From TrEMBL, chain A:
<dbReference type="Pfam" id="PF13183">
    <property type="entry name" value="Fer4_8"/>
</dbReference>
<feature type="region of interest" description="Disordered">
    <location>
        <begin position="474"/>
        <end position="511"/>
    </location>
</feature>
<keyword id="KW-0249">Electron transport</keyword>
<keyword id="KW-0813">Transport</keyword>
<dbReference type="InterPro" id="IPR017896">
    <property type="entry name" value="4Fe4S_Fe-S-bd"/>
</dbReference>
<feature type="compositionally biased region" description="Basic and acidic residues">
    <location>
        <begin position="485"/>
        <end position="498"/>
    </location>
</feature>
<protein>
    <submittedName>
        <fullName>Lactate utilization protein B</fullName>
    </submittedName>
</protein>
<dbReference type="Pfam" id="PF11870">
    <property type="entry name" value="LutB_C"/>
</dbReference>
<keyword id="KW-0408">Iron</keyword>
From TrEMBL, chain B:
<feature type="domain" description="LUD">
    <location>
        <begin position="91"/>
        <end position="269"/>
    </location>
</feature>
<dbReference type="InterPro" id="IPR003741">
    <property type="entry name" value="LUD_dom"/>
</dbReference>
<feature type="compositionally biased region" description="Basic and acidic residues">
    <location>
        <begin position="24"/>
        <end position="33"/>
    </location>
</feature>
<dbReference type="InterPro" id="IPR037171">
    <property type="entry name" value="NagB/RpiA_transferase-like"/>
</dbReference>
<protein>
    <submittedName>
        <fullName>Lactate utilization protein</fullName>
    </submittedName>
</protein>
<dbReference type="Pfam" id="PF02589">
    <property type="entry name" value="LUD_dom"/>
</dbReference>
<dbReference type="InterPro" id="IPR024185">
    <property type="entry name" value="FTHF_cligase-like_sf"/>
</dbReference>
<feature type="region of interest" description="Disordered">
    <location>
        <begin position="1"/>
        <end position="34"/>
    </location>
</feature>
């Protein structure tokens, strides 16, 4: 802040902004109408895809093979930029550091954008236990947070709610009746969260990539909330997996080419932000204080393991989830970890250093190899799954899970109550948190990698146990899915299929 | 990228503050009550850093690497690095790509023309507040004269203002692009005292002025120069914007303007 900040009060005190709501409403119509009438946006055909994949793989391999050098370089540069860098060996240490900062700031609220690592270390739970409000700022995430439910779809967390139900929820939140119109509802959330952004003491983000040579961190997103989190609150905390490094901005071009195309079929996400240190003294926005917490939490265990080191090359695009037939059948929550899908099936046991407890998941994979084909950095997930099974057999853990039916997910997701039930069956290790209007259950990782969700620890319970109980529950329910929900799901899948095929089959031409 | 993408136009002196360099990170200005616990964390961190890095080297079963390793695969594939469109192609592709995701692109000959267009849009949309970067280019739009009834502020033009709140209430924000890439349909804006990151983020409408000579073909042409600029010369925020803020979280229906601007115009100038 400039020196005058003390005399004019904080933004929080001056947050009485005069929003011109009609203007917003019209603006939204302006763009959506134009988009609807225009032809459906086709995904980019990007030429030489195999060559890009190979390049992406080489850059990741090189970085991980020299991780001590590049991570150290990043740390030194980030410090020179004025960032406070911290190291956490595990979830407890990461949480401790966050809580230390939050206490020092006497924080009352933390506003968050997507971060897988924050889910991995259960930061929301820790904050709320200390009476600090943790607000998720993605639109869908905010809706289900209000409902006290878990996400029901990997792409659209609130797809089990139609616009009338969402209108009801948000009306309650607003204390006035809101019409069930997407524009009005999103407009309300915008206004509400804007206030929250201006009031929040701390903004918390993840980190897609960290550039070693300049100490910069890079975020990819579509809504703009990650930009808000890194622009508005006075203090920024970034949780970063220790393997998120790329050497240079030149290397970022390769990641920026691979990640959005693989994740959502976009040429680039609407926003990509490179943040290099806290705000400069003369700047009038940006965080005054910036912390980056570098988290190991089991990652270093993969280093030096010839079969699994490449796990650290993952850029969290979620492409392997989208193509996995098993994942599409059972959904993410049944994987029981923060990370789901084929990558989760390998990474979860790896991070938990306890293959025996988790390898049920590996058995659930059909080993069709689609995940490898889809992976933009060519991680041999199917080989790793085979290795996992082999290690399991070597330890004498036989398993019949493959024979288990994988139906039930579709039924489950049509009814949010059944979700809550399913999650209770997961015997969530932490007690549910009673918070304001009700119980906050941050449920399983039904969203993909690229859209980050909280998952409480389900580790006390094996996948098999969960699945058995789940199957019993759902067997008692009629096996029909709400047609509207099904239609929306199918639309999502169709869109993604379309995007995938057009974005991955690009020939030699550039367009 | 030679002179086509000079990221910084000459800026007016904004906050007269001779002591603080343009690039002093803000952490140096904390009061001493804060300093203690931060120092403590800093000491802890530095102590832990060595163990952390040594552990990585141990796991990799070799001694610590202290010298920069050879990095033969740096950056995009070679064949990509020579790929360039001519100016007409760049304009066509940029327009196509930015428009396909819901953005708007218009070609203008001069800033004068751009000013007239923005004034007309402001009247059409009934804008009440406009915030612009404090730059010669946005001043040359002469919006203050064209729109006497609209409250127009130049970012950080005086210190006694809650600038984030001003940007948050603004209907229109006006920024100057430091560069753009046609292949992805992306504009790049950077932060400085006179160029708040809020200006391209918080208002409902964002209008980006893009001098045509700053339009490149590849995203790499915007990224790679930061490698050679030197760490200490990087702005705190480098933002790549490819269209309006979007979400499909309600009934899989595309909604725009969820957090960031819902209408984005790029005005290609020149
Ligand atoms: S393992 Fe999966 S999430 Fe990771 S980069 Fe490969 S496809 Fe993407």
């Amino acid at each position: 802040m400039n020196p005058a900040s003390s005399t004019r009060g904080t933004v929080k005190e001056r947050a009485d902004i005069a929003l011109n709501d009609d203007f917003l409403r019209n603006a939204v119509r302006f763009t959506t109408d134009r988009l609807r009438s225009g032809k459906k946006v086709a995904s980019t055909e990007h030429g030489n895809w195999e060559e890009w994949r190979e390049r992406g793989r080489q850059i990741r391999l090189h970085t991980i093979a020299h991780l001590d050098y590049y991570l150290n370089l990043f740390v030194e540069n980030a410090r020179s930029n004025g960032v406070h860098v911290h190291f956490a060996d595990n979830a407890v240490e990461a949480t401790d550091i966050v809580m230390t900062i939050a206490r020092q700031k006497e924080a009352q609220s933390v506003i968050k954008s997507k971060s897988m690592v924050s889910e991995e270390v259960h930061i929301n739970q820790a904050l709320e236990l200390s009476g600090i409000e943790a607000i998720e700022s993605d639109l869908g995430e905010y809706i289900i947070q209000l409902a006290g439910e878990g996400p029901s779809h990997i792409v659209i967390p609130a797809i089990h709610k139609n616009r009338y139900q969402i209108a009801e929820l948000l009306s309650e939140d607003a204390g006035e009746t809101l019409e069930p119109d997407t524009t009005i509802l999103a407009g309300y959330v915008r206004r509400k969260l804007r206030q929250k952004f201006l009031e929040a003491d701390i903004g918390m983000t993840g980190c897609n990539f960290a550039i070693a040579e300049t100490g910069s961190m890079v975020l990819f997103e579509n809504e703009g909330n990650a930009r808000m989190v890194t622009t508005v609150p006075k203090t920024q905390i970034t949780l970063m997996g220790m393997e998120r490094i790329v050497p240079s901005w030149a290397d970022l071009e390769v990641m920026a080419t691979l990640l959005p195309r693989s994740a959502t079929g976009q040429r680039l996400t609407m926003y990509m932000s490179g943040i290099t240190g806290p705000k400069r003294t003369v700047d009038a926005d940006g965080p005054e204080e910036m912390h980056i917490i570098i988290v190991d939490n089991g990652r270093s265990q993969q280093l030096g393991d010839p079969e699994f080191q490449e796990l650290l090359n993952c850029i969290r695009c979620g492409a392997c989830l989208n193509v996995c037939p098993v994942y599409r059948q059972i959904g993410g929550h049944s994987y029981g970890g923060t990370y789901s899908g084929p990558i989760g099936a390998v990474l979860t046991p790896a991070l938990n250093k306890n293959v025996a407890e988790w390898d049920d998941i590996a058995s659930a994979s059909s080993l069709c190899g689609a995940c490898y084909e889809a992976c933009p950095v060519k991680i041999p997930l199917h080989d790793m799954l085979v290795s996992l099974r082999r290690r399991k057999v070597e330890r004498g853990h036989g398993d019949k899970l493959e024979a288990l039916g994988m139906r039930g997910f579709a039924t489950l997701m049509a009814n949010s109550k059944r979700f809550a039930l399913a999650m209770r069956l997961g015997k969530i290790a932490q007690k549910p948190f009673v918070h304001n209007s009700g119980i906050h259950l941050k449920l399983g990782p039904l969203k993909g990698w690229n859209t980050y969700r909280v998952a409480p620890t389900l580790a006390n319970h094996s996948f098999r146990d969960q699945w058995k109980e789940l199957s019993a529950e759902t067997a008692a329910q009629p096996k029909t899915i709400d047609p509207a929900v099904r239609q929306r799901m199918e639309q999502v899948l169709a869109d993604r299929q379309h995007n995938k095929s057009t974005s991955r089959t690009g020939g030699e031409s550039h367009e | 990228m030679s002179n086509t993408n000079q990221p910084f136009s000459a800026k007016p002196p904004v906050v007269p503050n001779p002591e603080s360099s343009h690039l002093t990170p803000d952490h140096e200005q904390h009061d001493s009550s804060q300093a203690d616990w931060l120092d403590e964390l800093e000491q802890k961190s530095k102590a832990k850093q060595q163990t952390f890095m040594n552990h990585i080297a141990d796991r990799l079963q070799r001694p610590r690497i202290q010298e920069a390793p050879k990095h033969p695969f740096r950056g995009a594939p070679e064949i990509w690095q020579d790929f360039n469109w001519n100016e007409a192609e760049k304009i066509e592709k940029f327009t196509k790509h930015f428009t396909e995701v819901g953005g708007n692109v218009l070609r203008m000959q001069t800033l004068e023309e751009a000013g007239a267009f923005i004034a007309e849009q402001s009247r059409l949309l009934n804008a009440q507040y406009i915030v612009r970067q404090q730059l010669p280019e946005t001043e040359a739009l002469t919006l203050e004269a064209r729109l006497p009834h609209v409250q127009i502020s130049a970012w950080n033009s005086h210190t006694e203002e809650a600038w984030k709140a001003r940007a948050a209430e603004a209907d229109i924000g006006i920024v100057l692009a430091d560069g753009a890439a046609a292949y992805t349909g992306t504009v790049m804006v950077t932060s400085s005292a006179s160029q708040g990151r809020s200006v391209s983020l918080l208002p409902t409408v964002c209008i980006v002025l893009l001098p045509i000579e700053r339009l490149q073909t590849r995203l790499g042409e915007l990224l790679i120069p930061w490698d050679s600029k030197g760490r200490e010369n990087l702005p705190a925020g480098i933002h790549f914007i490819s269209g309006p803020s979007r979400s499909s979280d309600i009934e899989n229906e595309l909604t725009i303007g969820v957090h960031g601007p819902g209408i984005v115009y790029t005005l290609l100038i020149g």
